[in-house]
Amino acid sequence: MTRVVIVGAGFAGHRTARALSRTLAKERVEIVLLNPTDYFLYLPLLPQVASGILEPRRVTVSLVRTLPRVRLVLGEATRVDLAGRRVHYTDPEGTRGELAYDRLVLAVGSVNKLLPIPGVSEYAHGFRGLPEALYLRDHVVRQVEMAGAAPHADECGARCTFVVVGAGYTGTEVAAQGKIFTDELHAQMSRPKEPFGPAWRSPDTRPRWLLLDIAPRVLPELDRRLSETADRVLRARGVEVRTGTSIKEATPDGVLLDDGEFVPTRTLVWCVGVRPDPLVADVGLPVDRGRLRVTAELNVPGHPDVFACGDAAAVPDLTRPLPGGDGDGDGNGSGYELTPMTAQHATRQGDVAANNVAASLGYGTARAYRHHDLGFAVDLGGVKAAANPLGVPLSGLLAGAVTRGYHLAAMPGNRVRVAADWLLEAALPRQAVQLGLVSSWSVPLDTSSPEVARLPGRSRQ
Question: What's the predicted TM-score (pTM) here?
Answer without folding.
Answer: 0.92
